[in-house]
Amino acid sequence: MTKHKDFKHLVRQRMSSTGENFTSARAAVLQGRVHEHQSHNASRPMDPKADAFRAKTLRTFMSDGRLVSIPSKRRALVVILLEILRVFETDRIYREKDVNTILEAFHPDFARLRRELIDYRYLNRDAHTGQYWVNNPLPERSGHLGQETAAFETFLR
User: Fold this and answer.
1) Phi, psi of 125 (to 5 degrees)
2) Across the strands, what pairs with 131?
3) Are strands 66-67 and 94-95 parallel, antiparallel or unpaired?
4) Which among 119, 106, 98 is positioned nearest to 80, based on CA atoms?
5) Are residue 69 and residue 39 in the same domain, yes or no?
6) Cβ neighbourhood burial of 66 (10 Å; 0-12, 13-18, 19+)
7) Per the database record, which ranges form the DUF2087 domain (predicted)?
């Protein structure tokens, strides 16, 4: 995170108005595309049911930026994983130890969170080098993964 409050405030404003994660909003602000989101949002309808479900899930499972418990329902898990994904930078390569440290700040069962992020293909990993990175852009979904993630991933695309 940056120490510059003004810049962080601009990024947070963009995040709340576009639904982008921190890294995407930061990149857009850095490139001077702050006002681009207005025309982009006009073409993408907001789903009030998905927004309500997301808000309820975050209230239920997160307290003070930490997970109270890991949801067992897949759809709620996707909301939590996307919230956790906001912490990762898209243009950075992480060591497994770094990923574990980040995830442990959310919940003691960081191994499960890491596995879920990999399974949903939010993070990629090189088994030979032990390096992790954010999968950007997100992969196209089909079948049950498409149903679980569709309403929530649209904010990241």
Assistant:
1) -145, 145
2) 95, 126
3) unpaired
4) 106
5) no
6) exposed
7) 66-134
Q: What is the pLDDT of residues 104-128, one digit of tens each?
A: 999 999 999 999 999 988 999 998 9
User: Is residue 133 classed as helix, strand or coil in its secondary structure?
Assistant: strand
What are the pLDDT digits (tens) for 64-106?
889 999 999 998 999 999 999 999 998 899 999 999 999 999 9
Inter-residue long-range contacts of 99-107, CB under 8 Å, 24+ positions, other chains counted: 99/123, 99/132, 105/65, 105/66, 106/65, 106/66, 106/67, 107/66, 107/67, 107/70
DSSP assignments along 23-59, one per residue: HHHHHHHHTT-TTHHHHHHHHS---HHHHHHHHHHHH
Residues 39 and 83 in one domain: no
The domain total for the chain is: 2
Tell me, yes or no, if the pTM score tops 0.85.
no
Structural tokens at position 65:
């930026």
**What is d(CA 58, CA 156) in angstroms, rounded to the nearest whole number?**
17
The closest alpha carbon to 52, from 74, 79, 77, 25, belongs to 79
